[in-house]
Specification:
With about 120 residues, the protein is mostly beta strands. The chain contains no helices and 11 strands.
């Protein structure tokens, strides 16, 4: 069974920083991409940042230049460094890991989410 768990959310003032972490654990062959999504109240879940197994990154335009995604393949972890935070970044942030099973099947596994609130 695969588990994905986020940590690191909280309350921060505008202009501040937070670092989110996500760990994947369980029995699997490897992890393909790792991704951060967010969902604000009344809005659809949106992709914020993604990183491939080789380290190629991509960002939504709204966070480019402020957020940095990175991963530690040895520890099966992905991070999201969030700087220059704005009130509109307030949302529940979710981690999604694309897992390759031991039988080479691909599956999406989601964490439970972590709340990020940007407010003065």
């Amino acid at each position: 069974q695969v588990q994905v768990m986020e940590s690191g959310g909280g309350l921060v003032r505008p202009g501040g920083s937070l670092r989110l972490s996500c760990a994947a654990s369980g029995s699997f062959r490897s992890i393909n991409s790792m991704n951060w999504y967010r969902q604000a109240p009344g809005k659809q879940r949106e992709l914020v940042a993604a990183i491939s197994s080789s380290g190629t990154t991509s960002y939504d335009y709204s966070v480019k230049g402020r957020f940095t995604i990175s991963r530690d393949n040895a520890e099966n972890m992905v991070y999201l460094q969030m700087d220059a935070l704005k009130p509109e970044d307030t949302a529940v942030y979710y981690c999604k890991a694309v897992i390759v099973s031991r039988t080479l099947d691909y599956g999406d596994y989601w964490g439970q989410g972590t709340q990020v609130t940007v407010s003065s």
